[in-house]
Amino acid sequence: MERHELMRLLVGDDAASKAALAALADGADYVVWEAGTRLSDGHAGIFAMRLRRMRRKGAENLGWERAVELLRERPQPIRIGQITASDRSWIYTIFLTEDGGALVACAGVRHQVEQPPPSGAV
Fold first, then answer.
1. 8/27 Cα distance (integer angstroms)
2. SS3 state of residue 7
3. Average pLDDT in the 49-53 region?
4. pLDDT digits over 14-48, tens only?
5. What is the Cα–Cα distance from 84 to 101, expressed in whole angstroms?
6. What are the helix (H) ranges across 14-84?
7. pTM for this model (two decimals)
8. What's the CA gap between 115 and 2, in Å, rounded?
9. The predicted structure's pLDDT at residue 52
């Protein structure tokens, strides 16, 4: 999928889509995988578990709860993609219709970089 095509799909008014669009405009890396064999509601369970894990770890996220709802609402074959901000601070997961013609949902999570131990720590 071409960058401009993906940018056209991310014109929603939700915070995650806006942030993912801004990241793409800023030169973010992205990938869109071929359609899977599972329906969106099957992926919803997996991403609901990821949301619970993010919450336990205190990870900042955008749109995950809504994305899980949207995936459950209308079971359909989907394509999944990922956008990684140029500074790698955020990673966005995008859910597209099987043909890649429409955005189903978008969600982001702040990438937590492992901090080195304080100097002198053992």
1. 15
2. helix
3. 83
4. 999 999 999 999 999 999 987 665 677 777 888 88
5. 21
6. 15-25, 40-57, 64-73
7. 0.83
8. 35
9. 85
- Tell me how crowded residue 114 is: count the other CB atoms within 10 A of its CB: 5
Backbone angles phi, psi at 75, to 5 degrees: -60, 125
Rg over CA atoms, the chain: 15
**Residue for token pair 């999928």:** 1
Mean pLDDT of 9-16: 92
- Tens of pLDDT, residues 75-116: 888 899 999 999 999 999 999 998 899 999 999 999 865 555
CA 85 – CA 19 distance, rounded (Å): 9
Q: Give just the sign of the alpha carbon dihedral 54, 44, 108, 61.
A: negative
3-class SS of residue 6? helix
Backbone torsion region of residue 20, taken as left when φ is above 0, otherwise alpha when ψ lies between -120 and 50, otherwise beta: alpha
Residue 116: CB partners within 8 Å, gap ≥ 6? none
